[in-house]
Amino acid sequence: MTKSLIALAVLSTASLANADAVTYAIDPSHTFVTFEASHFNTSTLRGRFDKKDGSVVFDRQAKSGKAEITLETNSVSTGVAPLDKHLRSKDFFDAEQSPSVKFVGNRFEFAGDKVSAVSGTLTMLGKTLPVTLKANRFNCYQNPLLKREVCGGDFETTIARSQWGMSYGLDYGLPDNIRLLIQVEAVKQ
C-alpha cells in the first residue's frame, strides 16, 4: 500500500508540473522558414519552404516547452524554377525519398520571462543532429481578430549542411554553412 501511495503522489506531482503547459498551433500564414547561403561569395541566395506545420507546448511558469515544426521538402522555393527542381533532387533535399525536414525543440532557454533560445534536434535526409535556435525576438499578445493569445518570434541558426550528408558542390565552391531563419507565430488552442 505504501508503494501505491508513493506512486500516486509522484503522478499527482507530475500532473501539477504540467498544469500550466499550453498548446499552440503554428499559424502557417504567419510562419516563414527561410534559408540563406552565399552564392560564390558574390551575393546571397535565399529560399523558403512554403508548406510547414507544427505546434508548441509552452509552460511559462516552469520555463519549459516543446516545439515541433515540419517542412515539406517538395515546397522549397527560391523563385527560380530550375533551381527549385535541383534543390528537390538527390543532390540536395531528395524530396522523393526524404519528403520532410523536422525540428523538435525540447529545451527552452529564457532571459527573464522571454524565450532566448530553443535547443533540440533537426532531422534531414534521415539523419538527426542537435541544433539550437537563437531567439532574436519573442513575445506573446492577444490577437484582436482571433480573440486568442498568440506567441512567437524570430529564431535563427547556422548549420553545416554536410553534417546531414548534403555535400553537393562543396568541391567547387558552394557553401557548407547555411543560415536558417524561422519567423513563427503560434495560436493558443
Task: Explain what you see.
Strands 1-4-5-7-8-9-10-11 form an 8-stranded antiparallel barrel. With about 190 residues, it is mainly β. β9 and β10 (about 150-160) form a beta hairpin. It has 2 helices and 11 strands, in the order αββββββαβββββ. The radius of gyration is 19 Å and the shape is elongated.
Layout: helices, strands, pairs:
Layout: H1 2-17, E1 22-26, E2 32-39, E3 43-49, E4 52-59, E5 64-72, E6 76-77, H2 81-88, E7 100-111, E8 114-124, E9 127-143, E10 148-160, E11 177-188
Antiparallel strand pairs: 1-4, 1-11, 2-3, 2-11, 3-6, 4-5, 5-7, 7-8, 8-9, 9-10, 10-11
Q: What is the structure about, briefly put?
A:
The chain has helices at 2-17, 81-88; strands spanning 22-26, 32-39, 43-49, 52-59, 64-72, 76-77, 100-111, 114-124, 127-143, 148-160, 177-188.
Number of strands: 11
- CATH 2nd-level architecture: Beta Barrel
CATH-derived topology: Lipocalin
Question: Which superfamily, in CATH terms, is the homologous superfamily?
Answer: Lipid/polyisoprenoid-binding, YceI-like
What attributes characterize this protein structure?
Lipocalin, 8-stranded antiparallel β-barrel, 189 residues, 13% helix, disordered N terminus, mainly beta, 55% strand
